[in-house]
Amino acid sequence: MATIAVTLLFGVEPGVISGVLLSIILHLHHTSRPHIAVVGLVPGTEHFRNIHRHQVLTGTRVLTVRPDESLYFANSRYLEDRIYDLVAKNPGLAHVILMCPAINEIDASGLESLEDINLRLRDAGVKFHLSEVKGPVMDRLARTAFLSHLSGQVFLSQYAAIAALDPMIINPDQDGDGIATVEAG
Predict the structure, then answer these.
(1) CA angle, 148 as apex, 69 and 151 as ends, to 5°?
(2) Residues 100-121: pLDDT tens digits?
(3) Most C-beta atoms within 10 A of its C-beta, which of 11, 35, 154, 177?
(4) Is 131 helix (H, G, I), strand (E, B) or coil?
């Protein structure tokens, strides 16, 4: 609507310029606060879903966070803040896994945020892991020192990460103490 008004009042060229600028501003605004889900294991499957939308199994030692956007300058700080907030609310954590299937790209700011998250979690005694990292993103990470400083591991799948870090979530009745809990949305 704004673009039409500018075009009618000032001409085609200012209308096109205002449309491009408005599109960029709207894109930055939309992607600066991406949806970041805490996920858990859907019972009887190898699928992980949002704890607020599905009945899933979670534990107290591992937190899995899934950002639904690429990491770049406009949203990397938001991811940091969200992870720090979640860790502060879960004092018994030993591991944080960043589940990355929706991260298609990462820029220097996103990489810097991952480094900061890794350092801050390591200082708090929590290991930082990645799972389901796409090839181009892994290539970008491999060209830096980030992977050599990562306090945790990079897992091919989220299921493999949970199997390695907290197998009681996958098989909660294995020894009968029922550590896994079901979260419902």
Answers:
(1) 70
(2) 999 999 999 999 999 999 999 9
(3) 154
(4) strand
